[in-house]
Amino acid sequence: MDFFSAIQSNLLSPAVLFFVLGIFAAVTKSDLKFPESLYSTLTIYLLIAIGFKGGVAINEAGIGVVWLPAAAAMTLGGLIPLWTYPVLRHFGKFSIADAGAIAAHYGSVSAVTFIAATNFLKSINQPYETYASAFLAVMESPAIIVGVMLGKGALGGKFSLSDQGVRHALRDSVLGKGVLLLIGSMIIGALSGKGGMASVEGFFVMPFQGVLALFLLEMGMVAGRRLGDLKKVGFFLLLFGISAPILHGSAGVLLGHLVGLSTGGATLMGVLSASASYIAAPAAVRLSLPEANPTFSLTAALAITFPFNITFGIPLFHELAKHLHV
């Protein structure tokens, strides 16, 4: 499948089409609305399903195979905010807190973008390492911690563990709902293995695509409601929201290739590196950097980077991974 055919296939997938429907509903001011409890339930389901399936895959592959690419993914997640922050400060002219907050969002990852990427790979019959969800779990926390440190002025000596906001951020980046569910369910999957998967497959595997479609419908409405904020964030953040995922995703694909991942596995590492968090990072940043303007980070992550990645970014990183494996 060539690059443009891959893009077309991705754009016409049910997940992406439901996302577009959500945007349309928001733009046309439809009264369509998800109850908050349903949104939370869908989020919990997806995180547990991803983590559990990843744990079962780790059980099958063995920790000796998984540790190197997982360590590489974690390192990249922690490094991304370090070069993102100065770009935002010096070229974007953002405040210390805003630059740190945006950097934390872009170093952290999006579970839904990851799921969309696995769907894409399945649709084109591209094999990938099923333990790749381990990368999702280990990339979340380091970026949030580094971004908060930068936003608190760590380099200027203002970062302190006595700061309640900092302590909350460190706690949430390790024990927050998203990370706890991912890592916890991954451990359960690794311990229970194939036998455990057989007992819950009817719940965590068969309904998965339908739950994802509902979740993306909601995310489309959220993104659609933030389209008006593009006027506030300016041209620089629009450019950043597209160029940053291309740069980070390319680095992720290259790193995946260097640590021995397959074309599909390198694609997934690239997609995770390109993604921006809109669940775990906003919660941690809100507590630790209350002076940061959430309009900047959330609009960039949700209204710019997320739509770019699930429509064009995923096929782009797959194409790059294919070229590296020739």
List the helices and strands and how they pair.
Layout: H1 3-11, H2 14-27, H3 36-61, H4 63-90, H5 96-107, H6 111-123, H7 133-151, H8 164-175, H9 177-204, H10 208-225, H11 230-258, H12 263-274, H13 280-288, H14 294-324
Helix pairs in contact: 1-14, 2-10, 3-9, 3-10, 4-5, 4-7, 4-11, 5-7, 5-14, 6-12, 6-14, 7-8, 7-9, 8-9, 8-13, 10-14, 11-12, 11-14, 12-14
Short description:
This protein has 326 residues and is an all-alpha fold. The chain has helices at residues 3-11, 14-27, 36-61, 63-90, 96-107, 111-123, 133-151, 164-175, 177-204, 208-225, 230-258, 263-274, 280-288, 294-324.
Uncertain runs are none
Q: How many extended strands?
A: 0
The whole-angstrom Rg is 19 Å
Helix content: over 70%
Q: CATH top level?
A: Mainly Alpha
Could you please describe the fold and organization of this structure?
Helices cover 80% and strands 0% of the residues. The chain is mainly alpha-helical and 326 residues long. It has one domain: Up-down Bundle (Na+/H+ antiporter like fold), CATH 1.20.1530. The longest helix is centred in the last third of the chain and has 31 residues. The relative contact order is 0.19.
Question: Top keywords for this entry?
Answer:
Na+/H+ antiporter like fold, mainly alpha, 14 helices, 326 residues, globular
